[in-house]
Amino acid sequence: MPVNRRTALRGGAIAAASAALVATARPAFAAPAADPLKKIVAGYRELQTGINRPSPERTAALKNLGRVAKSYYDGMSVSGNGPLWTDLPLGPGSDYTTSMYARLRAIAVDWGTPGSTLSGDPKVLDGIKKALELIYASQYNPRVGEIGNWYTYEIGVPYYLLHTLVTVADQLTADELARYVSPIKRFVGNPNLRANNPKVVETGANRADKALISIVSGALTGDTAWIRTGIDAITDVAGGGAASVLAKLDRAAGDGFHADGSFIQHDTIPYPGHYGIVLLTALAGTIHVTEGTEYALPDELTQKVYALVGDTFAPFVYAGALMEPVRGRMLSRQGETGHDIGHQLTVATLVLARSATGTVKTELSGLAAKWIKEGTYAPFLEIPDPERFAPGPDLVATPGIEFAQEMLAGRVRPAPIVATHRIFGQQDRMVHVTEGWSASLGVGSTRISRYESINGMNLHGWHVGDGVLYLFLPNAKGHYSDAYWPTVDPALLPGTTAKAGPPGPLAATPLTTKAHVGGVRWDARHGAYAMDFVSEDGSLTAKKSWFFTPAGIVCLGAGITDTSGQAVRTTIENRNLGENGRGTLLADARVVGDSSTLHRPRWLHLDHVGGYVLLDNAEVTALREDRTGGWRDVDTGANTKGTTTPNTRRYQKLVIEHGAKPVDAKYAYAVLPGASVAGTVASVLAWRVRANTRAVQALRLWDNTLLANFYSAGTVDEVSVSGPASVALGRDSLAVSDPTQLQDSVRVTVRRRTVEVPLKDTFGATTVVSLR
């Protein structure tokens, strides 16, 4: 095991000192792990310190990581009863406790990693032991009460403490281990329930985290019953399986994984881009540490875990980053951009691939290899700044690099890009993937919240669920990671229709009053999506549709009506061009200045981004501006807050003006990602809009396929429906979904033939009917 390698690397006095310390009745977790408890501890240590696989990338990462760990160590004072760090004061319910343990964890793991800056230094070890005692006595022991966020006491601090303890476990006595684990026992002794409120049954990522914490804590202290409780918590044995983290819910919303691949946390927030990955990481860790022991998960469960990667997470990864619509409030975290969490997904996938076999191993390795290959904006094998883009969930993360290189040495073929149009009705999300670009939507409904803004995060999130169209382009892989959220105009997000006035106060997890949100999948390259939109204050309403094709997205809006008296705008584009970004904007072949009003343009083209075709008469405002903001503007969380450092980014805005108090206003335009000027001009007459009203919005494709969103009973061309529906009609088949998720069935009349399409309990999924 790597701990043996680490011990072997120490020479002379260090080795002698270590031998003397071990002589005082220690559990010797570094010994060959025939004992399942020692195997669990050694396995969890491996996830912190790695496998000592040498490479230039590992050496470079260790140098940068060691720089941070040494700065924490040099700034740490363990004399007296004062704080360990002057900027992290002690005290009951301190907002800084998590940061204390995080810094100590960085020092400890660097100390325990072969070849690192602090590796094996006895003075550093002495400092770690004294710091453990000081924080235990003053901040985290069985007698403290939970003040503030429960998560700090029941998950956040326990994880960092365990990372530290497993790394130095061979240097602590059994009594010392029991002492430092005792507060974890108090707060996570029963991983099924919330310690500060036992009426709360843990679900999703929180349950998986507590399960792994219980397993490792039990192994450290020899508490086999606690280990078993942790294993049983995964499938909720105590609750009869009701809160199993591997159960597939077949309904809209609700915490956990869903039958259609959705993942939700906090009951109404799509979270494959954070909590889902936290859960996956905990499950991967559980499989890793228990493998080969009597506590190993049954093969049936491990296969379910492996399948989650491709079903729930992979569809929302672009260039190694998670897409914004599935990241909830975490999009405002400076230290957790889409690329950061994408690295965490990659690490979890690599850990799972190490235990998988056969085709499953090949598939998991292929996905990880693909994300590593495509993630050029934040290279996975590099850690230039240890607090950014570190492979793994925490600061010190050389294991991710080592696991990746171990996998890549097997000449794994990266998974190919496969055209995909997929609708996740149980979390009101969709994704459209082409070989050249991808897209997704941020929406809200009566089932799924517009946004989440809690714990001081996502402070500009007013409109992220109002129909944001996210475009992911190969030449702008860092678009949303490059200080986007602190600098973008939050009232003019692409795809949204919004008022110009003050946005009003933020809520925590607000739902809308409209159930009609969803769409239909025609094939891997085509689909339609609809949203019955109402603003949070209820004054602005609109019917909004998006029709997805390989060439681009046709965006339709109708019934745009507002009573507030404020100006109403629909944003075609608001592109982050980067710091001092350039790129010519053309409108009908003329160069557009930094600020222009365009009267009924036919087409627009933005260099390095793509084209835009106006499909009806519209007044368009084009504005190029520099915007400045700090991450602290969007995140003031106690342990997540961003810096106040100003970031300036240049944006290109394209906005359709609807004026004040519009009644039944409309818009129609096509977005052509990556299109050339010639391609944009050539497509001006290619789009056939068949309807754009309050009742129905429809588009006819080049092969005569009809895509239509009906908001009520109605007719367009040769199709009539009895109620709300999204419909795709081809020559021999009909695809139908119920975006409201409220109907038992809908009658569709096509070419004088009426079909009753059953939709009960389909939760927005597409039903295909043959017309042959």
Automatic annotation (TrEMBL):
Pfam families: Lyase_8, Lyase_8_C, Lyase_8_N. Residues 1-30 form the signal peptide. The active site is at 266, 275, 329. Residues 689-746 form the Polysaccharide lyase family 8 C-terminal domain. Gene3D superfamilies: 2.70.98.10, Chondroitin AC/alginate lyase (1.50.10.100), Polysaccharide lyase family 8-like, C-terminal (2.60.220.10). Residues 61-364 form the Polysaccharide lyase 8 N-terminal alpha-helical domain. GO terms for biological process: carbohydrate metabolic process. Residues 421-676 form the Polysaccharide lyase family 8 central domain. One of its GO terms (cellular component) is extracellular region. Keywords: Lyase, Signal. One of its GO terms (molecular function) is carbon-oxygen lyase activity, acting on polysaccharides. The keyword Signal applies. Belongs to the polysaccharide lyase 8 family. This is Polysaccharide lyase 8 family protein. The lineage of its organism: Bacteria, Bacillati, Actinomycetota, Actinomycetes, Pseudonocardiales.
